[in-house]
Amino acid sequence: MALERTISIIKPDAVAKNVIGEIYTRFEKAGLKVVAAKMKHLSTKEAEGFYAVHKERPFFRALVEFMTSGPVMIQVLEGENAVAKNRELMGATNPKDAAPGTIRADFAESIDANAVHGSDSLENAAIEIAYFFPATEVCPR
Ligand code: RTP
Ligand code: MG
């Protein structure tokens, strides 16, 4: 198994609900370590850049508006199969389809306000980590 790093973002809805700690506990219990973290209120430009792959999708404007509606908590998670493990902890994009016990099933309101983001591949994880964290802000391995 491979030691991987991935990006997790606790979205504005979950930050407003004051469940950062509860979500961190799930990462810890699953063996994922936080190796970088910052809280940030994203600008429109930052959110547009982060979600650029979705810019032609019908939900793009709503997504950017939501992601800039309040502060987010951004972290790099490290662990065995971190990318897939984090996606598993998150649950399906739409909380209505998310498996019981997942973060989205327990804390998300809707497909828009869905509590967390997680990188969907190792390749995108590297791009997303570099988007938010200069190398000096991530703990060395
Ligand atoms: P994320 O990127 O936030 O981790 O979520 P995801 O991979 O599960 O979903 P993705 O397809 O990458 O979509 C990014 C975010 O856009 C919103 N979305 N809305 N209304 C819609 O049909 C729709 N589809 C996606 C969601 O908030 C999703 O998390
Ligand atoms: Mg995605």
From TrEMBL:
One of its GO terms (biological process) is CTP biosynthetic process. Pfam families: NDK. The keyword Transferase applies. ATP binds at K11, F59, R87, T93, R104, N114. Keywords: ATP-binding, Cytoplasm, Kinase, Magnesium, Metal-binding, Nucleotide metabolism, Nucleotide-binding, Phosphoprotein, Transferase. Its main location: cytoplasm. It is found in: Cytoplasm. The active site is at H117 (pros-phosphohistidine intermediate). One of its GO terms (molecular function) is ATP binding. Transmembrane segments: none annotated. The keyword Aminoacyl-tRNA synthetase does not apply. It is an enzyme of class 2 (transferase). Its EC number is 2.7.4.6. Its cofactor is Mg(2+). GO terms for cellular component: cytoplasm. Residues 3-140 form the Nucleoside diphosphate kinase-like domain. It catalyses: a ribonucleoside 5'-diphosphate + ATP = a ribonucleoside 5'-triphosphate + ADP; a 2'-deoxyribonucleoside 5'-diphosphate + ATP = a 2'-deoxyribonucleoside 5'-triphosphate + ADP. InterPro entries: NDK-like_dom (IPR034907), NDK-like_dom_sf (IPR036850), Nucleoside_diP_kinase (IPR001564), Nucleoside_diP_kinase_AS (IPR023005). Belongs to the NDK family. Homotetramer. Major role in the synthesis of nucleoside triphosphates other than ATP. The ATP gamma phosphate is transferred to the NDP beta phosphate via a ping-pong mechanism, using a phosphorylated active-site intermediate. This is Nucleoside diphosphate kinase. It comes from Arenimonas composti TR7-09 = DSM 18010.
